[in-house]
Amino acid sequence: MRITNIRINGIENPRGFLFEQLICSWNVRETESKKQTNVVIEVSTQKDFQEILYKKEGADLDQSGEKLELKLQPRTSYFYRITVTGDKGDQAVSEVCTFETGKRNEDWRADWISPSKEDTFHPVMIRNFSISRKIRRARLYATGVGLFEAYLNGEKLGEEYLAPYMNNYEKNIQVMTFPLDDALKVDQENTLEILLGKGWYMGTFGLDMQKENYGNRMAAIAELHLEYEDGTSECICTDESWEYYGSDIEDSGIYFGEILNRTLWDGKENPKRPVEVLKALEESIGTKNLCKAHLMDRMSLPVLVKEQLLVQEIVQTPAGETVLDMGQNFAGYLEFHADFPKGTKIVLDFGEILQEGNFYNKNYREAKSQFVYVSNGTPERVRAHFTFFGFRYVRVSGWPGECRKEDFIGKVLYSDLRRTGYVTTGNEKINRLYKNTVWGLKSNFIDMPTDCPQRSERLGWTGDAQVFAPTASYHMDTRAFFHKFVKDLRDEQQYLDGGVPNYLPNIGHKEDVGSVWGDIATFLPHTLYTTYGNLEEVEYCYPLMKDWVDYIDQRDAQRGQKKYLFNFGFHFGDWLALDGPTPTSFKGSTDDDYIASVYYYRSAQIVRQMAERLEKQEDAAHYKELEEKISQAVKEEFFTPTGRLAVDTQAAYVIALKFGLYIDREKLIEQFRLRLKKDCNQIKCGFVGAPLLCTVLAEAGLYETAYDFLLKEGFPSWLYSVNLGATTIWERWNSVLPDGTISDTGMNSLNHYAYGSVMEFVYAYAAGIRPLKPGFKRAVIAPHPDIRLGKLECLYDSVNGLYVSNWSIESDGTLNVHVEIPFGCEAEVELPDYPDGKQVLSAGAYDFVYRPNHDLRRPYHKGTTLNRIAQDKKALEVLGKYAPAIAGIAASGDPEMGANTLEQILSMGYLPFDPNELKKAITEITELEVAVNEVIQ
Hints:
Largest sheet: 10 strands, mixed
Structural class: alpha+beta
Number of helices: 20
């Protein structure tokens, strides 16, 4: 037995975090036991546990999250361990883990310090000090605005970048904790430095391209707490004893990039000068957000260099440029070794795509996205400090001599999330698509879930995060990441009287509030509860959820008599759908008020469900009544008396089925099928419909149709971008045209994760792993194999442990399925045509080898479309033998005729075919066996 994945609040060994509550979680592996008979959690302030500060024991302690009732002290390290006993008698004790508090509510002795107001350069704040006694414990608590890096004796402290990250500066600024126990010199002079940059705080940022959004002074505050072995202590604070000088960073900005000029101060004076201690902070608009009451222990996960990428190719373009191809679109920076003559100026420009073989980044809009380095002749490793770039290609200018691949390395930055999901199939294009969705997450999970990492936006668009959260939470453990985002949402909501903005940071508190985007207030907590099963998190999120629904309800009431519809204000609707008035319209044809009202219904329903779980009976009754009234209003406004949906678009059917808002489900599904046929089985829906499309088709039992959409290759489709070499998910279906030309639009990112939400279908239905109880304590494993994938391997390391669902279709028609269920859990395993039907299995590994009644190598039937027949040479030959005209129609690629099934063609007596011959063709086609190793699209 081995205890793994030990976390506090979803974080491994958290240091300096804001612990509003303590939720301890763990998993058990490598055991014959099926479940636990006892668990002991012990907490101590001593690593050897000689004195136990807190102990919790019982057979029913929850491995997905057990609350520890412990009063925490500031600036204190805690050690904890977990002992688990299994039902087979085996037992394991975990490794000793830690969590450490920051300053909590302790008063600050330090003051904010800044350069003189006249000095607008990027400063380094510096303090020299000596230590004469042996140190028992040393901690630096520090932050800076806009961004900061701390250095001790010339070495950067920690591995984090872009700290203190995105903050709602009008309410809080996060403080970082640095352990310095082994880094300080005794009986020697130590030098502590804090390098400052502009960042989100005062650099140009936001859609309005304004600077100094939160303040106009770069500043730092820090306390170095030293505890000596003799029992004494000392605190070195930022105060008037500090000095500053100008750094070599000439300029920096999130959009701008950075200029690192090692000759910046040549011929100029750059002496150390006394800092200005900032007082009366609230009296100046430039410093009012720096009041000490805003300082808080951190919530953001560390942003780290999580991966490194090598240059794949050096391209000499037709325009005479030298361009590095990293082979992968990502977010981060490029590091290189510099050994150049003094004055050498290297310019790096970043882009996502080449155009006509040349460098291009006009789709970055106002983001300059450039790194400039000027050498002073000293060899060094060079990187940006206070910015990041979204890119695959880098144009290198000014490089002396020949560029070599090995001179550069790509540093991939994203928040320190643990990977939890892995999928591999027998279809390489689907594998590439899957990787693209993961890279979309990595690129846009830099502290806040952003829309894109490259252009002059990089905002936390709430709609993007809302639709992608379920897929993201299969890919990665998002508990702590989204917990911080929930706080950011709640902080901003309080400025908007319950409204939820379209994006964060909502600079200036714009009152732009609408459905789908605002519904993140309920949908994200629902995703977190479904995925992780933590009621404490639900309680934390409840005010955000409740106030959002109340916001809509109250504004409905302001119109006089309530209509129980969200048919007021602006809504993005089915954004970027393809059924709008023109091919380039921003919005589709689905009625905005319908979408908004259906989401209003679902949000009210979620609040009601959460109120019930939290035993808030009065609230539960209120929101149940509201939910029912919204449902009735939607049905009266948008459905016919016979139960037909009057809004005839793909997105309309998708959300009605997804959220269970209909009069007659079977009638709605039939309408949906007809709508898809009218649309030639092409994706027409956009931001609202497309992320849910395949999942909803599967939920309706239309698995083959879901696969059809997943596997389509022409425009519009998920594989269209893959075929054009995409390594991330695009913002638009046609962000790049078939000839490789980027679409002529002012809004065109090649790294937008929203449409990557299709991978929820792959996890939940292709692999078949989905929760029956919150946190996957009880799960469904019900894979739906398709010959076009051939095989699939899926691992999902849930909060309760590792689920595995692997299947492969063998050449003799047998189906091999391997299933794993984690310790303490059980699953309803339902395999296609399995003789024993559905089984409820406990923890363990299981293998099934059998021949399904329906031969999976024979995918065709009378309901197969001509489009699919046209993709199989053998099937097309059979069709041509009996009905050559129909085969010709299929081969022509006509989308309208191709959307018809073989059975539907039979009823088209006006076409030139013999019905009896076509029936023979159908019979023969249904008996065709597709070889497993054939790639069928």
